[in-house]
Amino acid sequence: MLLQLNNLFKWVNSGGQRIFLLKDINLEVEEGEFISIMGPSGSGKSTLLNVIGMLDAFDEGEYHFLDESVHTLKEKHRANLYKEYIGFVFQSYHLLDELTVKENLEMPLIYKNFKGSERKAMVADMLDRFSIVGKKDLFPSQLSGGQQQLVGIARALISNPKLILADEPTGNLNSKQGEEIMDIFKQLNDDGVTIIQVTHSEKNAEYGSRVINLLDGRMI
Known about the structure:
Elements: E1 3-14, E2 17-29, E3 34-38, H1 45-52, E4 60-65, E5 68-69, H2 75-85, E6 86-89, H3 101-111, H4 116-129, H5 145-157, E7 163-167, H6 175-190, E8 194-198, H7 202-205, E9 210-215, E10 218-219
Parallel strand pairs: 3-8, 3-9, 6-7, 7-8
Antiparallel strand pairs: 1-2, 1-4, 4-5, 9-10
């Protein structure tokens, strides 16, 4: 079992009332699954993804990741856990504008204390794998949306995460680029990486092995 959420709630207080963002979520994810989270805007999809990714806290319930109880961990320990095992792919790329493609890719490896020579080899491998060798010294603003998304995915993958969390990974791309991205995910999943994606697209959801539907913060 990769992760498990038990009776998980998240809310905000507004005008003396609790507004529930997530309500009583129970979810088990096995290693090697490819899961799509679907639902209308405001249903809690991104919130759920951020909770799984340990970027967002929650108010009640339990979260177990591998052998750790996330709900009892201090923030520093939690940060170490997601840096070690989780890769994020965001719709808005989240690349660092002032760094080149090569430097953007290297960032996660610096966090994980890889040696310079190892970092160089791993970056070269990713540039090659995504056919972006020619772009390595460019800045994000000099790339197309599709290329930026490729760099974002390469960065998420570079430190060999067990789990990839993708929030509308093809949201800003044309259909051909979108298909390429989904094929990359499929291939990764075939190699054993667990993937959880938030998507509006039925077509993208079909790449996965199961769909979780959310409505008003509940799984339906």
